[in-house]
Specification:
two-stranded antiparallel sheet, 23% strand
């Protein structure tokens, strides 16, 4: 940037550039030009960034186009990239995590999830590109995240690296990522709520050792979990929506709860009659989704108020209609 704007770039312009970037995350627009628009449209008022910030769209785009990763000694950089594929941006993630841990304190609930970042740089696409079609940005760099369950503020990021690189990281293999994300709050008795990627019995036990509680939906990693019993024996054809089955651990970790909730999808009759767009949506949701398996060390299986959810059913006249069903649920299901 200094070379591109040798005589014009000063500190306050750089601050304005970063301020515009932050403002764009708060007020998403269809295209970059909308931020500098001076006329209202049918959906939103004109943002008038030039009038408010003093920076034109061309100046901002010129500064953005001049951004690049610092190469330094090119031979040294190439050698370090052989040893660490994320060498050029790893420090950025480390500093960001350190800064968030210093200036932000999370609530009593931590949420572990993943985020996809579409990389827009023209000269560097990152060493690993992940493709996940169901994500809003289906191709880019994947990061595991931890956020405050109360404010939804993300305060920890970990890059998704190659399997070999993940093996070399600290802590044990299976629950390593979860433990690294929540490490700043070890011993604080917070509750971790996570999706199926993070869930396992090993993870629950290791979190208990560090005075954490866990609530997670479990799909894979079913070692030491009674998934076979839940899916083959716990429910019958006469089971109704909202039924639950619960098993408790008999080991030293008696807080471990395996909980299964029976909540099938739309009726079979509706599936057979579905056509067009509805049929395509149903196809995406095919498979054994009737039982939702949870692992918990934080909440109980006590019943709470029903969950009201729209469902498609066939009435007495044979017509498919949509209505709200009150589905019984437990405290574990409600909290998740």
């Amino acid at each position: 940037i200094l070379e591109a704007f040798r005589n014009t770039l000063i500190r306050w312009r750089w601050k304005i550039f970063l301020g515009v970037v932050i403002a764009m995350t708060v007020s998403p627009a269809t295209c970059i030009g909308d931020y500098w628009s001076t006329e209202d449209n049918d959906f939103m008022p004109a943002l008038k960034f030039k009038e408010k910030t003093g920076m034109s769209k061309n100046r901002w785009e010129e500064m953005r186009s001049a951004l690049a990763f610092w190469e330094g000694d090119i031979e040294v950089t190439r050698q370090k990239e052989k040893e660490d594929e994320w060498y050029r941006i790893r420090k950025l993630f480390q500093l960001w995590n350190e800064n968030m841990n210093q200036c932000f304190k999370a609530g009593d609930t931590l949420v572990c999830d993943e985020s996809m970042c579409r990389w827009l740089a023209e000269n560097y696409y990152g060493p690993i590109v992940t493709k996940m079609p169901l994500k809003p940005e289906g191709e880019g760099s994947l990061a595991k995240t931890v956020a405050c369950g109360i404010s939804s503020i993300i305060f920890g990021l970990e890059l998704q690296e190659s399997p070999a690189a993940m093996e070399r990281k600290e802590l044990m293999k299976t629950a390593a990522c979860t433990l690294r994300l929540v490490k700043p709050y070890f011993g604080t008795k917070r509750c971790v709520i996570a999706d199926s990627w993070f869930a396992s019995v090993t993870c629950a036990v290791e979190l208990l050792k560090r005075e954490y509680f866990l609530l997670a939906l479990l799909k894979g990693r079913s070692c030491e979990y009674p998934k076979k019993y839940f899916h083959e024996s716990a429910f019958t054809s006469e089971s109704i929506r909202g039924e639950t089955r619960t098993l408790h651990s008999t080991t030293q970790y008696d807080r471990l709860i395996a909980h299964c909730w029976y909540e099938p999808g739309p009726d079979k009759v509706y599936k057979q009659q579905a056509t067009g767009t509805v049929a395509r949506k149903m196809k995406k949701k095919s498979g054994n989704r009737k039982m939702k398996s949870f692992i918990s060390t934080a909440y109980t299986a006590l019943p709470v108020e029903p969950w009201s959810r729209p469902r498609h059913i066939q009435n007495q006249g044979g017509v498919i209609v949509t209505c709200n069903l009150d589905i019984p649920q437990s405290q574990i299901v409600q909290a998740y």
